């Protein structure tokens, strides 16, 4: 994200909306595991974030960046148990970028989490989807669920599919499926947008 500056003394604009940046390369030694496993959540819900270590590194901490607080670790906004951070009561102020960081300075891939105070959210994968794999998106509703589950699914602002089940599946994902997705219910409204990233399939040479 960025912000503008002008004048003397300096006057600053508000920060821009965050945009995802994925850099391909070696996978980091730790992954941020989110439960429930989705990037959008309702206010007042609970949330658990854990650092799943694949190396011998120790002392992983969950950290986040938000507009209001900048960078803070879990001890300032959640309850810490080992490498797990628990949030018992979400509010929109928890919207931000989350990641794991070790004592030695290693980082996991970041995850954008959105906390929504409306009636509809989009259930989408937390981590990038690998080319050739299926992608499932669902419209989720604040209780109670509507009797009519029909929903429109959008990619980059244009309707992609309309599904009576409230669930959309792309059987074989390709790089062209990467983009911003959201869903809309005719009575309950629409979800925020989430970025879906597609990771290239690994190729091996013999």
Write the topology of this structure.
Layout: E1 5-6, E2 11-12, E3 30-35, E4 40-42, E5 47-53, E6 61-66, E7 70-73, E8 79-81, E9 84-87, E10 96-101, E11 111-116, E12 120-123, E13 129-130, E14 135-141, E15 151-155, E16 158-163, E17 167-170, E18 179-185, E19 189-190, E20 194-196, E21 198-199
Parallel strand pairs: 4-11, 13-21
Antiparallel strand pairs: 1-2, 3-5, 5-9, 6-7, 6-10, 8-9, 10-11, 12-14, 14-17, 15-16, 15-18, 18-19, 18-20
Q: Can you walk through the features of this model?
A:
This protein has 206 residues and is mostly beta strands. It has 2 domains: 30-116, Immunoglobulins (Immunoglobulin-like); 120-199, Immunoglobulins (Immunoglobulin-like). The protein contains no helices and 21 strands. The protein has strands at residues 5-6, 11-12, 30-35, 40-42, 47-53, 61-66, 70-73, 79-81, 84-87, 96-101, 111-116, 120-123, 129-130, 135-141, 151-155, 158-163, 167-170, 179-185, 189-190, 194-196, 198-199. It has a 5-stranded mixed β-sheet with strand order 4-11-10-6-7, with no helix packed on it. Strands 15, 16, 18, 19 and 20 form a 5-stranded antiparallel β-sheet that branches. A hairpin with a 3-residue loop joins strand 18 and strand 19.
Would you report the number of β strands? 21
**What would the average pLDDT be, to the nearest integer?**
88
What is the helical fraction, as a range of percent?
under 10%
At the third CATH level, what is the topology name of the largest domain?
Immunoglobulin-like
CATH superfamily of the largest domain: Immunoglobulins
Low-confidence stretches: none
Summed up, the domain count is 2
**The top level CATH class name of the largest domain:** Mainly Beta
The main β sheet shows up as: 5 strands, mixed
Enumerate how many helices there are, as a single number.
0
End-to-end gap: 42 Å
The arrangement of helices and strands along the chain is EEEEEEEEEEEEEEEEEEEEE
């Amino acid at each position: 994200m960025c912000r503008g500056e002008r004048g003397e003394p300096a006057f600053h604009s508000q920060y821009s909306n965050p945009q995802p940046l994925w850099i391909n390369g070696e996978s980091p030694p730790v992954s941020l595991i989110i439960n429930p496993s989705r990037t959008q959540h309702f206010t007042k819900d609970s949330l658990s974030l854990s650092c799943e270590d694949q190396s011998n590194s120790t002392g992983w901490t969950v950290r986040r960046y938000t507009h209001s607080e900048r960078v803070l670790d879990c001890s300032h906004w959640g309850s810490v148990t080992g490498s797990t951070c628990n949030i018992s009561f979400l509010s929109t102020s928890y919207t931000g970028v989350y990641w794991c960081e070790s004592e030695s300075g290693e980082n996991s891939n970041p995850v954008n989490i959105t906390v929504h105070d409306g009636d509809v959210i989009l259930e989408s994968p937390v981590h990038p989807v690998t080319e050739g794999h299926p992608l499932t998106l669902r419209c989720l509703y604040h209780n109670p669920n509507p009797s009519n589950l029909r929903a429109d699914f959008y990619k980059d602002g244009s309707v992609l599919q309309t599904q009576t089940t409230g669930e959309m599946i792309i059987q074989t994902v390709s790089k062209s499926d990467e983009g911003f997705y959201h869903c809309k219910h005719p009575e309950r409204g629409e979800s925020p947008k989430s970025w879906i990233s597609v990771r290239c399939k690994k190729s091996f040479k013999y």
